[in-house]
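> example.struct
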């Protein structure tokens, strides 16, 4: 079992330094989320057909290596059915985004694990935080495995990845982000008061998380099914409130989880439920004296909804859609910080 103490060094907890470190890692996660959005929207995710955690750090270094990678890509359905005839230059363009996404994922892992080992050796981790930090590090490793599991779903029989696996990949990243923010806030409070106890989730907080989880899941499915393209009008969908074209033939559950028209519709209107809960959260923050945090939360909710509408009416403009995904990540981080504020316990 890994130990987070040693007799070789005096105990020297440094919660403020650890909090700054975790905030820096959280920013890296948001960066990865941004590049992941670009990777998806440029259809680049299947350009690297192998998972090589170590040797995959280096891209092809000469023309022969590029040709070899391209030949591997030519064996999968996406090339044969969608990109047949793609040039080597075109392949290099999509390869770049997937390679960068994977490199940034490794960077997040290094940024979390290396300092964790250093702080543990220096006995700078406050009592009770070692297991939590280990869990966050393990979550990064699991995220890499989920990413490959997602990619593998599109290598043999499909021309894209499974939207279920894509959702698992994105939601795990957002859960990691929330965990980093929550732990950083706990450590920051501890730095200010050595008697402070970790915050806890309130019943209201659990409700906010449940509603936000549904919205994020629907958003991931919209992305995975390319459901954003099925309608480019708002608030109606192709001149109808409830869109035509929903396929109910496989039953309600099949439609709820696989039909792009229905999932797009649900993502649009569930956002108002999520917004209402987040506005109530902002009001609760304001009553606790955190008016600045409350205003920030309201601003980000408004920006996120505006970006969602713009994504639709522009026919999924890439940079607007990427901004929508990034602000979604920021919204998760700010919500985690807000729920932490509500869940603080007295020393």
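> example.seq
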């Amino acid at each position: 079992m890994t130990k987070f103490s040693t007799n070789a060094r005096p105990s020297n907890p440094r919660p403020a330094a650890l909090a700054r470190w975790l905030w820096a890692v959280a920013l890296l996660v948001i960066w990865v989320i941004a590049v992941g959005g670009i990777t998806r929207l440029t259809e680049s995710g299947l350009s690297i057909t192998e998972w090589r955690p170590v040797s995959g750090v280096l891209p092809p270094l000469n023309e022969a290596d590029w040709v070899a990678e391209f030949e591997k890509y030519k064996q999968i359905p996406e090339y044969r059915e969608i990109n047949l005839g793609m040039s080597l230059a075109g392949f290099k363009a999509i390869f770049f985004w997937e390679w960068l996404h994977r490199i940034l994922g490794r960077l997040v892992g290094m940024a979390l694990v290396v300092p964790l080992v250093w702080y543990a050796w220096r006995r700078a981790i406050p009592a009770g935080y070692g297991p939590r930090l280990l869990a966050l590090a393990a979550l990064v490793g699991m995220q890499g495995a989920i990413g490959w599991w997602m990619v593998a779903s599109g290598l043999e029989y499909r021309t894209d990845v499974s939207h279920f696996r894509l959702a698992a990949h994105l939601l795990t990243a957002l859960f990691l982000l929330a965990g980093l923010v929550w732990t950083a806030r706990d450590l920051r409070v501890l730095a200010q008061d050595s008697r402070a106890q970790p915050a806890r989730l309130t019943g209201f907080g659990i409700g906010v998380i449940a509603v936000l989880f549904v919205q994020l899941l629907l958003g991931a499915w919209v992305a995975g099914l390319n459901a954003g393209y099925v309608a480019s009008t708002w608030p109606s969908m192709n001149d109808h409130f409830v869109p035509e074209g929903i396929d109910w033939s496989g039953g309600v559950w099949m439609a709820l989880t696989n039909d792009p028209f229905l999932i797009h519709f649900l993502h649009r209107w569930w956002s108002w439920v999520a917004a209402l809960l987040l506005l109530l959260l902002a009001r609760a923050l304001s009553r606790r004296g955190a008016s600045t945090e409350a205003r920030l939360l309201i601003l980000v909710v408004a920006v996120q909804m505006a970006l969602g509408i713009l994504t639709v009416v522009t026919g999924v403009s890439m940079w607007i859609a990427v901004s929508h995904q990034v602000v979604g990540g920021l919204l998760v981080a700010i919500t985690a910080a807000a729920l932490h504020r509500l869940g603080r316990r007295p020393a």
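> remarks
The radius of gyration is 22 Å.
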